[in-house]
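Let's sit down with a protein and look at its sequence and fold side by side. Go ahead whenever you are ready, and we will take it from there.
>
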Amino acid sequence: MAHDSVDDAHTRPAGTSDATVAALGKLSEALEVVEEARGHLYAFHRRCGTADLTLGEAVDALRDAGHTELADRVETDLVGRNVLAGRWSFQVVEEYDDGYYATFREHERRAREELMEGRRHVFEAEMKEDRRTAGRAGHAATPEDSSRG
């Protein structure tokens, strides 16, 4: 049975089953969630850094307002404090990137190499081909096809 796709780069290799395409589609979907989590982790990292810098400004403002003892207490205990045991947020990001994230990406890549000749998003490309209305404006298979007609 032939399976149409939007272009050759997203066409399943000959003999690849629907079950394999679906399984790799799920693996790709899981990686997308991991990518989203990574983005949230980077947002966490940026928010932690911004909070610490803003806290430093608050300490300066407390000190300028004559609240030296309070400013000293907050500065000593909170400014520059680890967000997790022994770690600032950049260290959390690096550990995630070098561990779980890198391992997940490598397994997904190897599965695509072994089962799909390295092609990405074959499941989604077949879904696009199935759902789009060929020849209709806004439904072109590729960017190149958008400029025709």
Q: What stands out?
A: The mean pLDDT is 94. Residues 18-64 form the longest helix (47 residues). Helices lie at 18-64, 68-77, 89-116, 122-131, 143-146.
